[in-house]
Amino acid sequence: MHHPLDPLSAAEIEAAILHFRAGHSDxxxxxxxxxRLEPAKHLLKKSEQxxxxxxxxxxxSQSDGGFEAEIDLTAGALKSVNRLAxxxxxxxxxxxxxxxxxxxKSCQEWLDRVAARGIATTTKADLELIQVDPWPAGGxxxxxxxxxxxxxxxxxxxxxxxxxxxxxxxxxxLIAHLDVTAGKVVHVEDTGVIPIPPSSGRFDSAHxxxxxxxxxxxxxxxxxxxxxxxxGYRVKWQGYDLRVSIHPVHGLVLHQMxxxxxxxxxxxxxxxxxxxxxxxxxxxxxxxxxxASEYNMGTLANSLKLGCDCLGEIHYFDIHQVxxxxxxxxxxxxxxxxxxxxxxxxxHYDLMTQVSEVRRSRRLVISSIFTxxxxxxxxxxxxxxxxxxxxxxxxxxIVGVSAVTPETHNAAQAPxxxxxxxxxxxxxLFCFRLDWELxxxxxxxxxxxxxxxxxxxxxxxxxxxxxxxxxxADEHSAKRNIAPQTSxxxxxxxxxxxxxxxxxxxxxxxxxxxxxxxARPDSQVGxxxxxGLHHLWATPYTEEEQGAAGQHTVMHHGEGGLPELTKNxxxxxxxxxxxxHTVALTHVPRPEDWPVMPVEYTGFHLxxxxxxxxxxxxxxxxxxxxxxxxxxxxxx
Length: 636
Ligand SMILES: [Cu+2]
Prior knowledge:
The protein is mainly beta and 636 residues long. It folds into three domains: 10-83, Nuclear Transport Factor 2, Chain: A (Roll); 94-205, Nuclear Transport Factor 2, Chain: A (Roll); 230-326 and 344-609, Copper amine oxidase, catalytic domain (Beta-galactosidase, Chain A, domain 5), CATH 2.70.98. It contains nine helices and 30 strands. The structure holds copper (II) ion (CU).
């Protein structure tokens, strides 16, 4: 028996496709994603006996934005097929990308331009060495592509053999503009030949001069097993109780998280992300992929490997997806879960008694990794013994590249990373949607920061400061940006639940030192990625408001995103509160990022503030309790 929030099984996907085809006879239908529809929050709270429904998205023979079908699995019937408008289409899928690559490689003008760069294009084997990467062109579609047609831009790279890293050899200056809907290359843009960089970009072990031999075995073992328990996709660990799943757009999702039987978050996941490039080079200036919604990032989940992706006593969750031609596909080990030692939880050494009290910290790690083209994004939720919840994003993979000459190189916008190879400056902005349910009931939002106090009788030297709190009562006042210099953070409270000190229980969002979106708000990038203009947004819960950049973003111009959701300035003073947090980093590539990027990190913390009455980890076992004698021994 499925819980309503469980991911879909392979059998459910197969059944959904059968019901869809029985009610929708379009032979040309191909599929982008399938998701089990989460039951409405108020219904699920009343009963877990909800009908099981799925949403299936795809493209068929109709020349609009594609279909979004709802299938009732419980009743075994296709319930509805909604057509999407031309300006906001279903995500790009493998079928679009495959078609774009094939059309590009069949375009004589494009082949001629490739050949003009001294690259062989005559045989099938020649063409197999040319790697074509399609990029979303929404926002900057070529003028010859009619409104509403699905646009892609294809850039290309030259591989030495089938397993080579093609990104080492960009075929620079050449872009094929594709109208995928019409099935043709509408324009071949060529801004001039730049020599192909000389060095290899191979990063596999077989192509390195040597492998280190002085790293000793490091085993993580838990002879008694891990401390968590699972029941399907439900997890219990150290007072936490939650469910996990993967959503086609949002990726890894935590549901119904409670701590010590007290609700904390109803749902926590990425809502959207954007990667805008800052470089003036025509190969990059238009790039600003909304990786989550334009590419259905959740469908690009890796199958994780024990001992490599995750180390220790691991529990894996499999998930199931739909293939473009309507089959069920299992992604084994899509979600990884394990415990990690995390140094000390707390410590004090008493000078008088010379007794040291110290306890170990550990965290539960729940993670998934998604590969979107050249980049790999790891999303790691960490749950700590003291109630802290952390999201850490790990960015790795291969950076975007330009072939350059000393004459064309623009160091301020694309630093050199290898011989003849530069990499454009760009940003990664992630917007997380945090659906709070702090201690049950309605929640309120506050901004807290430090104010330096004026000189005065009680502050003669100007050294004093105080912590001030400001209620964010409506959507407009909740559009906020970070201010690390004043220790600014945001606090979610439940005014109806007081702690032992008589103060409303709370959790604070501690943001990282993030940039905001650099693109002008009135640019295409600024409109489509407007969620990046502020680090904080807040809305009252509304079931259909899930997308920070709108629900369907392929070919759209920024409709339906957070500026639109918050335009009526709704009251959020005491409500079912949804917080949207944008965390970002600016990537100025460095030689060490080449040929594969060491992981770069960003994220945020959610920390209890008066949710407990005192340190909730005093009951941890004294694994490293040291006596006076032991201290003296170690001193000598
Ligand atoms: Cu980057």
